[in-house]
Amino acid sequence: MSVEPEVPIVQVEEVRENPVLYKIISSDNHVFTISEHAVKLSKTLWDLITNLGLTAENALDNPIPVENVNGKNMETIVQFCERHKYDEEEPEYTNYIREFVLPEWDRQLLSIDNEELFQLILATNYLDIQKLMDYCCRVIGDMAKDKTPEELRIIYGIPTDAEDDALERSASDSPGPSG
Amino acid sequence: MTEFPLLRLPLVALKECLKIMNPLELLNLSMCSTKVSKLIKLGGTSSLEVSYLFLGSDTKQIEIGTSRSIYRFEFPASHTIPVFISQRTADFLVAVSQKPEKASFSWNGSSLELVDYILDTFNCPIHSISSGSIYPYSSLVELTNWVLTRQSTIGEMSVTTRNLDGEGFKEILDKLTVTEHLDVLSKLNPDFQYTFKKFPRSIYFDSPYWMNLEQLLASDCKSITLSNSFFTNSNLDAYFEKWKNGDYPNLKSLRIASDRLDDSAGIAGVAPPVRVENNPEMVIR
Fold first, then answer.
1. Which residue ranges form the domains of chain A, and what is each CATH number?
2. pTM of the model
């Protein structure tokens, strides 16, 4: 008996809806395809698409170069946006401490090395994807759970007051651009 | 594993990370360095509700309330302060059926020094102070003077101090405006008189012999609870008459208990006994 290949839900929806697709080129020349609903999660990319006047007819012929994001981060970002493209819009929140739990799928996606996470946040910030920024920050915030100040200093690479003072002194002692 | 360079994050990301941390995590983070302690307020901490409960000379509590939880620091303790974390329920009451989680926080100073540190780090006002019945009057003065060095209004104040000095208490009420809720459970001398320039939104006074009809009629509170008062049926008639004329649009709850209420006479046209609608066994007095 032959087994039917499992088709991811995302693809089924793509075929059914016949969505508009866009091409994005990362800084290291990797090409990604992303649906219209997904790309809208990035304010930067959607503004760019709108300003360039890309349409369903010409979108795939006009790849969008993104100089500040490499292929590895773009892959994560595209996966995230496709996963969350139909999420309900989150209500506006006030300037208040926020308490929410990270969904398991996203926790898996963001289980990456700290340096990679840092680079992903820079990319997310550049592409202005609020939800991914929230989720990345949740991962960073979770690192602080049940930790003492001494442990937090190590986890977050925070210099002591004495180290900060020393850095400040050495900065003021070093000659300026004209010196 | 490599460290995560928190302080190298773009400002918008740093703010989000701080907003996600709870008050205890933020306080522990603030202890890492002076530079970090100055950044904590970026996490929107100014809207946290900090309360100081002075329950006795050696029993004090500090509570930090978020929209969903309350973090309670319990003194006396030296160096390692136990912190109890309770979840709020949907109606903003703390769930008492669940055993609170217990964490801890290292602090070498006094409870009041910790409140100062919390308020400065979070850049928020003190929301509430509460004094226990064994709390001496002199300490209440000290506590309110400390509040006045920081702010001239406070959300909530609860006074249960015994032997409350009337003149001194008047001075406290004149200087420190209570905006949200005022509890006065202390016994005051019968000759005590005080006229509120502006009533708090909610009041709970025990034995308010000092509160006369004129004061009651002048109140514009959302909630009034007076136990052991001297009010009579005709006093309440006068109040309800004004209420029926639309004088108290904010009023949501009124509970007045008095030994001078006459069960045989009606109030506001309602024949006695007046009973609680959902509990017919209870007679309103």
1. 12-90+99-171 (3.30.710.10)
2. 0.82
